[in-house]
Write a structure and sequence with these properties.
By secondary structure, the protein is α/β, with parallel strands linked by helices. 27% of the residues lie in helices and 25% in strands. A hairpin with a 2-residue loop joins strand 2 and strand 3. The termini are far apart. The structure holds guanosine-5'-diphosphate and zinc ion. Zinc ion is lined by residues 243, 246, 251, 253, 256, 259-261.
């Protein structure tokens, strides 16, 4: 029997099959089942169900865990929604880092400026720079409800994750979009028999108007893992026309002379801020993978 994993706990997973949900045991540590996985499971004579195998994944959302190692946190997602807000102060480098990860995963991405009613002109201006580079933007408020219909429309027919700095309003947006989400998570924590100290619970929520949202503490403000510093440029889509025009075919677009990427920055074709994010993320990735 095959089913979709809609919640993951330490030793169990909740799976869904034709609208019916049930708990499944996970066999040992061998099967690293994550939310969004399609799995095959077997029913035991005891009535318990056991996950036997994970179907091949289309995408894997991978974060850097507290030990600095890559860890898969969700599978088969279609879209990353990056949430940013005037408070805590917007971190546009982090936004670029998520967008880079989304581009490298080949999933859709959009940026929403939440708490928009706090009206911060500098943030609206920074947000406006993303449209021209092919990234959709939204302005929302979990408090006033502004922009939520547009966000809902964006989430329909897709499996998405909301990511961003702690405090920008991801939980508030989830609760506004999925009535009862908080209650479901609380109920699941009990059912999983792991007590109240479950910190790693990842849950897939269905939106009333269609679409799915995956949420977990490990996904919400994860730092995306990028395996190779050389791959970073592929996540900055507006840079694409230039590397082929650099003098050196192995140009890293950092210190090299006659670099078409740096020329594009000098002539305003690439935003200086985006280039700085590229340099910073390239260096960071080299450190993390070196
Ligand atoms: P998370 O850490 O990203 O999940 O953020 P939370 O959803 O926990 O929100 C952090 C704080 O911001 C809470 O005090 C929320 O009430 C507040 N908040 C969330 N969305 C909005 C919003 O749209 N406007 C305002 N003014 N506050 C918000
Ligand atoms: Zn170059």
């Amino acid at each position: 029997m095959s089913a979709l994993v809609v919640a993951r706990f330490r030793n169990t997973a909740e799976v869904e099959e034709q609208g019916r949900r049930r708990m499944c045991l996970l066999k040992g540590k061998r099967l690293n089942v994550v939310v969004g996985d399609r799995v095959d499971y077997q029913e035991l004579s005891t009535g318990q169900a056991v996950v036997e195998a994970i179907r091949e994944r289309d995408t894997e959302l991978t974060r850097i865990n507290s030990a600095g190692k890559p860890e898969i946190v969700a599978a088969n997602i279609d879209q990353i929604i990056v949430v940013v807000a005037p408070q805590p102060a917007a971190d546009w480098f982090l936004v670029d880092r998520y967008l880079c990860a989304a581009e490298l995963l080949a999933v859709a991405a959009a940026v929403t400026l939440n708490k928009v009613e706090l009206h911060e002109p500098a943030d609206l201006e920074a947000l406006a720079a993303y449209g021209p580079i092919g990234c959709d933007t939204l302005a929302t408020s979990a408090r006033t409800g502004a922009g939520l219909d547009a966000l809902r429309a964006r989430l329909t027919e897709r499996r998405s994750v909301l990511v961003g700095q702690s405090g920008v309003g991801k939980s508030s947006l989830l609760n506004a979009l999925v009535p009862g989400a908080a209650e479901r998570v609380a109920g699941l924590s009990q059912k999983s028999a792991q007590g109240r100290h479950t910190t790693s619970t990842a849950v897939l929520h269905r939106l009333p108007g269609g679409g799915e949202l995956i949420d977990s503490p490990g996904v919400r403000d994860y730092a995306p893992f990028i395996g190779d510093a050389r791959a970073v440029i592929g996540g900055f889509r507006e840079f694409a026309p230039y590397p082929a025009k650099c003098r050196f075919s192995d140009c890293r677009h950092l210190q090299e002379p006659d670099c078409a990427v740096k020329d594009a920055v000098a002539t305003g074709k690439i935003l200086e801020r985006r280039y700085r994010s590229f340099v910073r993320l390239t260096e960071l990735t080299a450190t993390l993978t070196g």
